[in-house]
Amino acid sequence: MELFLETLRLGLNNLRLHMLRSILTSLGIILGVAAVILMVSIGEGNKQAAIRNIESLGASNIIIRSQRPPESSSVGTQRRSFVAKFGLEDADWNRLVESLPEAQRIVPLKAFGSEVSHSSKRTTSQVFGTTPELIDVLKLDVEQGGRYLVPEDGDSHQRVAVIGSEVARQFFPIQDPIGDTIRIDDRIFTIIGVLEPIGLAGGAGGALVGRDLNLDVHIPIQTGRLEFSDTVYRRVSGSFSGEETRFSEIYVEASESDDVLSMAARVHRIVDYGHGERGDVTVIVPWELLANVERTTFAMNLLLTAIAAISLLVGGIGIMNIMLASVIERTREIGIRRALGATQRHIVSQFLVETGTISAAGGIIGIILGVGLSLAVDRVLPWILSLPLIQQHIQVDVTFESAITLWSIIVSFTVAVATGVVFGAYPAIVASRQDPIQALRHE
Known about the structure:
The chain has helices at residues 2-17, 19-56, 70-78, 90-99, 134-137, 151-155, 165-171, 204-209, 221-227, 260-275, 286-329, 331-339, 344-385, 388-393, 406-432, 436-441, and strands spanning 61-66, 81-85, 105-112, 115-118, 121-124, 127-130, 160-163, 181-184, 187-194, 217-220, 231-236, 239-244, 249-253, 281-284. By secondary structure, it is an alpha+beta fold.
């Protein structure tokens, strides 16, 4: 034990005497460890954001959506005025209800109106008639002071609406919207609630839905069918077209997440029965997408880690290079130690202590740097990308999330120390094999 402590003291003392060289030698390890932690944290953060967005759609949900078939799109470009009829019908709804008695909930959505306005402000309609169960299916929350739709609203055909947070921000930037009114086409609806912000606008969930859910307006589906027709007219680039669907979307919620895939297979068969060749209905299963995201991000994390690990390799080569130079520089010292009775094992131990210490210290500093960069990346990078100099050349609108993982810290530090020991082993062996007599004669 005393011999080990003496060897450790000699190794540390030598590093202290050459502090600048020791710092430069460990720089590759520091940057390598920091790069591994930063890359993994960015990959993990984006993975968690994607998973969170998909889960917001409901991991137990199956989304059946009407979509305009390609034939209708091509015809619409040839005519100035065209109404395309497609998508889910009452027969589809009845088949789903009859064939899926074990489903927790089956909730319809139907698009209504072409424009939403308040005073002089207006926006393209994202009004959807639905039932009160949607708040549970999509895990929605209503801001304090308001409420969501209730069965009585639909039974009595009330003109009430629950608006998204972005609609509230645009139309009512200062005042409380509860109790105020909005106009859907030429009908006036009273606002009874405001949905809390839904983090799907730029995420994976928003891409699946195909719209910003914070711009949605929900009304009772019974009121919508009474006040509006099934045809929704749009004016785009001077052309006037319409879409006629009975249901825009239908959400099927499974009782257990384990039942989602089997229920999704049955939903596919039910939908294909009436729409297989028409291609006007699509089925989205967030549970499948969740698994795909996890597999993809795992592969991405491995790739990013492998790229960052190259820095560790470069750091190891730097350690070997410096230690080989140190062997030549300290040849006379090695000869003196051998003459005084030091064995080859003692010489190897001294050099390994030095390389191990350099690697461990670099690993610790790299961890601190990597964690610091990971905590700052989601704030600093968007700020850098928003600078006028960058915005002049390229328009970027990206968000970053980071999530520091314990395994990346442990693995990077372990690899850093192992790299130092492995790459320091050869110089240590070279030093131990020096002939004592020749070493003492070295100038």
